[in-house]
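Handout, section 4.2: multi-component inputs.
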Amino acid sequence: MPSSADIAAIVFSRKFWRGVVSILSFLVIWEIGSRSREWFGVPLPWMSQIPAPTAVAVTFLQLVHSPSYWYSWYLSTARVFEGFIAAMLIGIPLGLAMAVSRIFYGTFFPVFEVLRPIPPLAWVPASIIFWPTQEMSIAFVTFLGAFYAIVINVIGGAQAIDVRYFQAARSMGSSSWDVFRRIILPGTLPSIVVGATVGIGITWAVVVAAEMISGGGSAGSMGGAGGGGLGFFIWNSYVGGSYTQIVVGMISIGIAGYLSSALLRKLGDMVTPWLQQR
Amino acid sequence: MRAVNTLPVTAAPVSVLGGQIEVKDVSKSYGAVGFAKTVVRDCSFTVERSKLTVMIGPSGCGKSTLIRLLAGFESPSSGSITIDGKPVSGPGVDRLVVFQESALFPWMTTYDNIMYGPRARGEDNKVSRDLAEFLLQKVGLGTFRHKYPPQLSGGMQRRAELARAMINNPSVMILDEPFRGLDAMTKKLMQDYYANLYEETRRTTFFVTTDIDEAIFIADRILVMTNIPAQVRAVLEVNLPRPRRLEDIIENDDANLIKMEALSLLHEEAMKSFARGSKAAADFVEAYAKRIRKDD
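Output:
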């Protein structure tokens, strides 16, 4: 946990104030843009269609009290973490197995490389047909988003371990299991963290699109605008013509993605202490 | 630094003087038959018991290949390598390699790095822990036990690596250009420190370097290598009294004679590969030709 002195140091740093100025100027330009029909004599036909930040803020303050808005947060977050955790549980062992076993690599990597370029969203129709519930098809597509990033990083990380570490370990009498546990696993950990951080970002992009396409899953019918997750929330606001809600939904996803990445970075720093202290 | 006499004896029944390595007619080629590149050809030499043998040769002459063969990471295409009469097959705890630059495990603290060998063999007991403690003090890293390698200076990393090897009480230590990449000051300090360490234990040591001054300062014998494919061109005995001091060696006539001889041999070898158009050899010729002329 950062101490109050750390927080003070951040608040009084130039970097912090540059950030504040940057975001404030963006909001001011946006506000002026959406309130004016023209700018310096140049008409602004598109800009004025976008709701002003103040209007968005008003809608947001109303939505804060709406349980269905928070329920869509919950649904999307749950789907992201279901898919993400499944991708970690399957992807890490698979990547490690491919990295250490030539037979395993030869058997699975070609299939993996053929499937990898297929964007997760192209899987949506197939997975709706294949999986028994909408919920499972969304989770599966989300899983795919993180899975490839994790596996590729694990393989790359394990293969990039300096050969001298293996030589040193074997010289000192390590068994294969010992080498795996004390060299390969910690040596791959930084890449696993990178793969996870990249993976969860992709997961948010995928879950939102999947919710829009699939109509929010089975939960879509129960809670009106907020029933099907943040992606469905945006789509429903669009169908209902509530432009301020669209923007609130977009910003919500931005915040959710940022929080997930920050959480993963924090966890990543905790499991790789040797990279933190220079 | 004299405290080594109290070194706790580990369970392994290894002679204090260490082992003797015999390399006989060893050749090593890489690549498919017919297209193979021979890196070592009919190479024979002895790393004598409880002596410090230095191998010196132009860069890219196959020194590192010989180290991998001695360590057992690779096997020779032909010929034999024996240690105390037993053939080398695969890596073993009886001969440990200290690598070029640091091969400390970055994810382990200094202490965990030193304890790696004992733990790998299931010997995480009081004897090993006491020995680790002793070695930490000996290499001057007592207060750095919980630091990770990136937090140590270059010199500290080399000392930690020496400790990590020594805790296994190998009968032969193999050092592959261990002080390469250190700044001039640290390098001198490490050479001094290392000479001291060797003089205390006199464990059989095989030390590879490209630095002729370093070679003469620490060596009992110097093997001057030919260009690739590697063979021993000449063996120079360095009968300078120990303990040695860097300042004494600079003004010692015997040392300078050995240096002259080694340099002219190396110069000839470099010229040969220069004739074959090696870039590394061109640099070498340029650097050493100047020094030889000055010495004349």
